[in-house]
Design goal:
6-stranded mixed sheet; 3-stranded antiparallel sheet; signal; alpha+beta; about 15% helix; 1 helix; binds 2-acetamido-2-deoxy-beta-D-glucopyranose
Length: about 120
Amino acid sequence: MTNRILFFTILFVFASLILASIPLFTFNAGENATIGIGDSKEFKRSVGSAGGIQVYRVCDGKNAKTCGYWEDLKTKKKVANAPVTKKVGKNLVLEKVTAEDSGSYYDDGDIYFRVQIFELAPTK
Ligand SMILES: *[C@@H]1O[C@H](CO)[C@@H](O)[C@H](O)[C@H]1NC(C)=O
């Protein structure tokens, strides 16, 4: 019994440490979210209730037809309700984010970032 408690305590501590080491960016809904995610040629994300992976390819002059928007990797279609997204320097800037943009973001080395968008309670 004591062993079991010890095991879960240690497991909890390690899980917390791992989670704490993953960069977390937080924003309020409606803001432009600037995510310092680095200098990749493409980014992936797993967000919202719909699930699935979306890819964003940075425009490089040779990929005009497939760059600059979030594409659903499975359907190969543009994600209709995804925010306007641009790469500015080493940041990914998502305009007017909503709670649906909360989730996991990855650079092209599969480095993982957590993004959380808070919906503010409506005033009045
Ligand atoms: C977000 O970025 C767009 C485009 O740069 C700009 O027009 C808009 O004012 C910005 N909105 C906020 C809330 O900063």
